[in-house]
Amino acid sequence: MASNSSCHSLTTCVLFLFFLYLSCFFNNLNAKHSITNIHKNQHRHNKHLRNPPLNLRLYRAFLALQAWKHVIYSDPKNITANWVGPSVCNYTGIYCAPSLDDPKLTVVAGIDLNHADIAGFLPEELAFLSDLSLLHLNSNRFCGIIPKTFTNLTHLYELDLSNNRFVGPFPSVVLSLSSLAYLDLRYNEFEGPLPPQLFDKPFDAFFLNNNRFTSSIPRNLGKSKASVMVFANNKFGGCLPESIVNFADTLEELLLINTSISGCLPPQVGFLYKLRVLDVSFNNIVGPLPYSLAGLSHLEQLNLGHNMMTGIVPMGVCELPNLVNFTFSYNFFCEEEGICKNLTSKNIVFDDRRNCLPEKALQRSEKECSDKLKQPPVDCFEVCCDEGGFGKNASAGSVAIPPSAIPVAAMPVSAAPLVAPSYP
Ligand SMILES: *[C@@H]1O[C@H](CO)[C@@H](O)[C@H](O)[C@H]1NC(C)=O
Ligand SMILES: *[C@@H]1O[C@H](CO)[C@@H](O)[C@H](O)[C@H]1NC(C)=O
Ligand SMILES: *[C@@H]1O[C@H](CO)[C@@H](O)[C@H](O)[C@H]1NC(C)=O
Ligand SMILES: *[C@@H]1O[C@H](CO)[C@@H](O)[C@H](O)[C@H]1NC(C)=O
Ligand SMILES: *[C@@H]1O[C@H](CO)[C@@H](O)[C@H](O)[C@H]1NC(C)=O
Ligand SMILES: *[C@@H]1O[C@H](CO)[C@@H](O)[C@H](O)[C@H]1NC(C)=O
Ligand SMILES: *[C@@H]1O[C@H](CO)[C@@H](O)[C@H](O)[C@H]1NC(C)=O
């Protein structure tokens, strides 16, 4: 996107513009000072005029930010109004820090434009910000795609593009960023399948909810380091694969609300021993609630609501020591074991409505329940779990999701990232 036609590649372009810029800069100075003065006191001048002294990397950052400003079409809060001149470290939203490879060099290490309401797009020149480790663009109106040149942002650690208007396929360029730990793409219009490699990346957290992703969760998940995975409100389909157990050593929050997941909950979910939040509500899950969930000793929030699960609510789940909120409404459970009958006595917030529990109020009609009972029991080994689609038989009675309010995983507020490196 470099506009100068004499630039054959971005790098030569940068160098070319740098020298052009230096010569202009010194020409300007010539107007005010004599050449001799500048030569004598260059160091002092540098310090005085530019704070910190301009280096090639800051100059590249200057080019990147000017290119960006050029494609900002609306900035109602005037955030970029002071994005003029070479002192990029003074620009609003731009954070400088000593370079990782040369502490004597000041470089642009972070950009935080959260809630800036800016409209525009991301130009290829942003790749000049090769020292960037944090890019937070939550709640703006950026559109278009993520440029392929982002592959040069090799130090990028946190990428938050949430609540914008980005489109196109999953931005595969993020898979090439070896330092990336935190990926937040929620509330955009990305579409199509997720690349299977995404699940093998050592990301600490990824938030993909409220997009138009369509693929299922791959059946062979590698070891992941993710502690938080939020997929809510996409059209995934398929099942939750047994290989989810490969996430056991790190996974603390798994949110699959309204993702068209079908089939049974695999017993392996019960081996995710660090889970604190499990929400699979508003899907097409069938079959029983696995007894293995009694192993989730850290579980605080469990939401199974709005599925087609049947059978018993196991005592082991109701006795989980840290459970504070257990929602299993809008299923076909027909029996509660032991203490499950009286969750009030355990101070657990619960919702058991619209099941087939004979002793409870606000249940499904007798007809609905007996119709369900007449169907052959679900055989979880038989309920096929096609990748990218519904289970062969699970789709048969798929529930229509009512337009009632879904408790969506909180709107993005990336102001509090999980691991925030601090910049001066
Ligand atoms: C932004 O700048 C424009 C023009 O300088 C001004 O009219 C407007 O009031 C400013 N808006 C804010 C929020 O400062
Ligand atoms: C940058 O900001 C600092 C602190 O606000 C100020 O002292 C300095 O003069 C500014 N530098 C330039 C070149 O504007
Ligand atoms: C990106 O990195 C490659 C390889 O290091 C380099 O050739 C290219 O010029 C860089 N592009 C930008 C925009 O910095
Ligand atoms: C479920 O997700 C789809 C997008 O996949 C969305 O259109 C729909 O409104 C969501 N349902 C609810 C109840 O939010
Ligand atoms: C319990 O969980 C449900 C479903 O996630 C939620 O709607 C409700 O607000 C929660 N209640 C409390 C008291 O946390
Ligand atoms: C549930 O337990 C509470 C306190 O332990 C008790 O007061 C209440 O009567 C019990 N309710 C039922 C329906 O057994
Ligand atoms: C799927 O359901 C059909 C009847 O609806 C049944 O004949 C068939 O055996 C089932 N297949 C599997 C794999 O459960």
Report mean pLDDT, rounded to a whole number.
Answer: 80
Q: Biggest sheet: strands side by side, in what order?
A: 2-3-5-7-9-11-13-14-16-18-20-22
Structural class: alpha/beta
Shape: elongated
What multimeric state do the chains show? single chain
InterPro entries: Leu-rich_rpt (IPR001611), LRR_dom_sf (IPR032675), LRR_extensin-like_regulator (IPR051582)
Signal peptide: 1-31
Protein name: Cell wall hydroxyproline-rich glycoprotein
Main location: secreted
Defining traits:
single chain, alpha/beta, 6-stranded mixed β-sheet, 22 strands, binds 2-acetamido-2-deoxy-beta-D-glucopyranose, repeat, glycoprotein, cell wall, LRR_dom_sf, leucine-rich repeat
Describe this structure in words.
There is one protein chain. This protein is α/β, with parallel strands linked by helices and 424 residues long. The chain has helices at 10-32, 35-40, 42-49, 56-70, 315-318, 366-374, and strands at 72-74, 94-98, 106-112, 119-121, 134-136, 141-144, 158-160, 165-169, 182-184, 189-192, 205-207, 212-213, 228-230, 253-255, 262-264, 277-279, 284-287, 301-303, 308-313, 325-327, 332-336, 349-351. The strands form 3 sheets. It has a 12-stranded mixed beta sheet, with helices on one face. Strand 2 and strand 3 form a beta hairpin. The longest helix is centred in the N-terminal third of the chain and has 23 residues, at 10-32. It is elongated, with a radius of gyration of 27 Å. Mean pLDDT is 80; it is low at 1-8, 13-50 and 387-424. Bound molecules: 2-acetamido-2-deoxy-beta-D-glucopyranose (7 copies). One 2-acetamido-2-deoxy-beta-D-glucopyranose (NAG) is lined by residues 382, 384, 392-393.
